[in-house]
Structures are given as structure tokens and as C-alpha cells.
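Review form for a predicted model. The reviewer records the input and the model, then writes brief findings.
Reviewer: anonymous (R2)
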Amino acid sequence: MSREERKSRWLAVIVTFLITAAAVTFCYGLTEGRLEEEKEEEPERTQNEELLTGAMELPSDTEIYKEGKYILTQAEGDRVIVENQTDGYRITVPREWTGRIQCTCVGTRLEGRQEAVEIFCETFSSQGELSSYLQYSDQFLEDRADHTEQKEERIQTKEAELYLTWWTRPSLSRVEEDKPYYLCIDVIPSGGKDFQRDGFFVCTLQLQGENPIERQEALAVAESLEILETPREKDGAEQSRESQGSDHQDRREKPEGKEAAGAETGQVRDYWSLETKQAYQRIFGDTKDITWGIFEFSAPEDFTALSHIEEQVDYTFDILLYYQHFEKEGPPEEFFQGVKNAAAKGRILELTLQTTGQKEGNMVYDILNGEMDEYLKAFARAIRQAESPVLFRLCNEMNGDWCQYSAFHTSRDPELFCEMYRYVFHFFEEQGALPYMIFIWNPNETSFPGYKWNHQWHYYPGDGYVDVVGLTGYNTGTYYEGEDWRSFDEIYAGVYEKAAANYQKPLMITEFASSSVGGNKPAWIQDMFYQIRKYDRIKAAVWWNGRDLDSQGNVARPYWLNENEKTLEAFREGIHDWKKEGD
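Model under review:
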């Protein structure tokens, strides 16, 4: 990706939304899963397990259903009361909206055949943060090529203020039962900061439909919202649930067929080639060793610079990070040569494919309308012809607003990312490229913006489409105001804990590095080799050998491994010690 674009956006977001991100942190450690049948001797539930629910089907012949802190009750007529004691509300919806129900501490999704609604509750410490949430969340509407804002409306009742925004996006031919019509209702209960919550409370209902959303029906649902006295209490130590996670289960239906084989356990896929299976086992199998990789911008098209670095550190990197972007005219010839070169050298590519910005419209919509099929065919052909395994990372850091494929740019609807991801997967399957592809799903370490609708869980496409979960975090140094020098442990301890708790997949650090501005980079490298030993689920790590520039073109973050002899020596000694321990 363009690291200059990414890092410049961080500062703009961090100052405004630092406290907002804390609202999401409370819920990070919890996970979603399928409801399990009751056992004869059910073990005592932990606080997390009590809230662990996934896709629930409301039985048609019962009037009440309860699972932990989520209760469904038959209301008058053809309506259902949904009570969420985690977030502290109950709401009445048409029964036809409850064909599929997904509940976690991040949010609740109710889905019928023609309609769906996402419900998120946020609490902000100030009116300014609340206003930022309302305004910042809708910035995608500035993309007039894809989004048509139909109208806005504000309604004041005795109980609450309601902010309504209608919009549409293109209907997508590659999405089954696509719902391109949206209505977002932000419900702010009367009473402001004193209203039963420690802050300014808002409940957001984002409705989608195959047809335009009926105003009266939507208002009836929004006005039925009843805030419970107190949501689920934190423990006395105000402990973050980040450290209490349990095993992650896919909140969506797992794909049928061969792509789901071994999905839950991280085993090899039946459809992989023998060489791909061997590569996967070598890197991600039951090994305590770590496979090291590097990004060097000229490789694998040209190995000259990389070979020099490898001579200096006396180590051959097995993984090469390589970037490509969707292009209407197809991959450049250098891409085909790069794939061939990597295969000939016995290296495995961490092949990263991303959409880019364009003058009009969003490329995610183009993909889901089949406009990038020719590019994907050429891309698949290069992989298929090389007959060499690749680590395929599609549109990484999707929960960051610097990425055009983030929901921040696509109707704040993360499901569109999942649709795109699954579409690309099945396209490569049809083109015969899957035998050589190990899929990496790679969110950013922190979501920007830090709102619940942008939580990384919403971007997870399903266990059947993910082979490895990628982690990304940098010591960015102190070049910019507001940034801190962070050790490897400070960056990865929390990230690792969340990923290990929430995903039953092998983990890898897909890209990382340390700047030299603001601290001792050689000492950071030495400490990194020491600290990484305790993260036994991490099976690979890739150093990003490059730099970030500021807006004036000056080097802001020098990440080069070969920046000077001291950094080279630190890495050379660290990797040699690592190799000795593995022998």
C-alpha cells in the first residue's frame, strides 16, 4: 500500500477519535459463535461465554427465546421484541426482519430476505465527540459518483432526537439479494449526559433494503426503542474484555463445498497443490520456528538490492512482500515476471492485492459489478502458470479509513468488503488458481474510525475463506507530534492477545518495522528478537524495508533495515541467535 497515505491519515484521525476508540475497546475480547445445544452438565459460564451468541434462528412456534443477555419475545401482531441487555435496550421490529439474528457486544444484526438492520450503541464523553460521530460517519456521501443522498430529516420527540439520512448506491450484479437502499437513524435519547449512562448516548439503526425503506415503518421501529436502566456492568477493576476473549467462530454461514475443509483448525486445504500444502506446513504447521520475510521495493522483479541486504545480514529471506493494484487494463508485464522470478528463486510471495482510488466511483463497486473480471483472469493466470504457492493478502487494513475498500468509503457497510473478498475467492477458484493460494486476512491493529460499525469483526469473510490471520503494527517513532516510541511488546502484546483469542487460525506479522527517529533502533531490533519468542502463534514476520515521507517530501520514518551498520549488525546477530536455537 502507499504507506505515505496511510500514516498521514493516522494523525488526523488519532487526535479526534482517541477517546472514541476506547468505547470499542470495551468489547474487543468478546467473540461471536453459533449457539450450541445445551449439554446435560453445562459448565459454569464465564462473563464472556454468557454473551457468546451468533446467528440465531427465532423458532416460529415459540413466544420467547433467551440466550444469555439476548431475549426475543413475541409482540402484538406480526412483530418481535428484541432485548439486548449487553448494550441496554429493547426494540420492536417486524418478525420478517428476524430470519437471521447475529448478536455480539459490538452490535446486533437482524436480517430478513428483503431487509436488514444493524444496531450499534455508543457512549461519548462530550457533545463534541457525539457530533463528530454523526458527521464523520457519513463522509462517504461526498462520493457522489456512487452514493445518492436522497434527503435528511430531524425529528424531535419527548423521548429522543432522531436524525434520519436516506441514500442509495449502485445495485451490484455480483451480490445475491443485494440491498442498495439505506436509511440510517441515529437515536439520541432526551436527557443528554444525565440520561442513565456515563456520557452522551446514541443508538444507531442502519437499515438496508432491496427496495426503498418505508419511512413510517422505520420510524415505528426507531420510536419503539426503549433504553434499559443499565447495560451489563463491568467488573470492579474496570477490566477490558480485550484480555478475556474466547475462541472466535464465524458469525456468518460457512461456505459449502471444498473451500471449507479444515477451516476451523488451520489444517491444509484439500484443493491445494502438494507444493502449497508443504509450504503451508513448513511455515504455519506445528513448528516453534518463525519464517522471516522482507519487503524490498525492487524485488522480486530485480533481486540486486535484496541480494546485497541478504549478504549484509547473512540470511536469505523466505517471504517477499509484493504489492499489486487492481487496474482496468490488467496487471503490468512486470507482475508476471516478478511471480516467475520468485518461483525460480524458491521464494514465496506475500502477494498483496489492493483497490486504489479513482477519479469517479469506488473500485469495490466495480469489482462487484464484474468490471474487474478481465484483470482477475490475468492475475489468476500468472499464479496458475507459475505453479508456485503464494501467500495472498487481499485488501489489507480494511478497517482503516485510508483504504478505499474500507466501509468508511462504501456506505459504512463492511458486508460489502466481505462480499468482494468472497467474490474474488470464488473467481480464482473458477480460474484454477486456488491450488496455489494461501489466503491471508489482515485487519489493522486499531480501527479508524474507532466506531462499532467499523470494528474488524464485521470485515471477517468467514473461516472458509481465511487460512491465516495477519497482524500489522509499526514503531512509527516520534517524527510527528502525538506519536510515541513503542517497543515491539507494546505494539504486539494486545494485538496478539486479541487475535489469538478470537481466531482459530495461524498468525503472521505481515509487515512491521521500527523507525530510527526518537529512539535506539538497533536496541529495538535486539529487543524484538527477544520478545517475539513468547508469541508462539506467530509463524512468520516480514520486515518492511522502506521509508515514509512527510508532505514536503522529507523522510519522516526511516524503516530501512540497512539504514546503517548498527541496524544491520543488530538484525544479523538476532537472526543468527534465532537460527542457533532452532538447530
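Findings: Residues 247-582 form a domain with the TIM Barrel fold (CATH 3.20.20.80).
Further findings: The chain has two domains: 49-232, 247-582.
Recommendation: see findings above.
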